[in-house]
Amino acid sequence: MEVINVQDNKDSEERRNEFVNAAEKLFKENGIVDTTINSIVREMDVAKGLFYYYFKSKDDVIEAISEKYNDVFNEMLRFSMDQPAYTYEQRLKQFVDNSVDSFRELNVNLQGQDEDVDLSQLSKRSTEEAKAAAIDGLTELFEEGTSNGELSFEHPRYYANILISGILELVEQHEAADDEIKFIIWDLIERAGKD
User: CB 101: neighbour CB atoms within 10 A?
Assistant: First the structure.
């Protein structure tokens, strides 16, 4: 039986991140299905048991990559909401801009090196989590705008869901430039949110 030295001259978080980065690289090169745990540990030149110290399965690594992407996504969205010097309208506009930029970055991160590389398992998980976070954030801003009289939405969550779904669809289809998407969404907010 192989004994694993957890110290391994690296701290635990650093080693775990190395596994995540190696798996991410291999997923993008080969797809998730064609990337095995053996190929991940071979890429890192470590014992297979070390993988199992940090992760129970390949699905755990997929979850860790998804969390990595969504941490960046959520950080960009929160930035818009946590700017006390901004007016409400500036924060709302910044949120729309950051949503488009964040979905674009997420979309780029979820592309394989070739078109036939399947990252659907990672893509679906990451996109669903990002979409839910964006809908929650936009709903919160719409509710704030409604309560302070700057907007008038009877069902803020419905509007947030429609607008975030629209942003995501336009980003994924690569049919509209980011500035065009931002303009369209802002125009819809102004039209729908005013009495």
Answer: 17
CB 153 within 8 A of CB 135: no
Q: Which residue's entry shows tokens 């959520």?
A: 74
User: Does this model's pTM top 0.90?
Assistant: no
Give the rounded distance of the alpha carbon of 72 from its chain centre. Answer: 7
Note down pLDDT in tens along the chain; length 195 residues. 444 444 455 688 899 999 999 999 999 999 899 999 999 999 999 999 999 999 999 999 999 999 998 898 888 888 767 777 788 899 999 999 999 999 999 888 888 888 888 888 888 889 999 999 999 999 999 999 999 999 988 999 999 999 999 999 999 998 899 999 999 999 999 888 776
Choose the CATH number for 63-193 among 1.10.357.10, 2.40.10.330, 1.10.101.10, 2.40.70.10: 1.10.357.10
CATH number of 12-60: 1.10.10.60
The domain locations on the chain are 12-60, 63-193
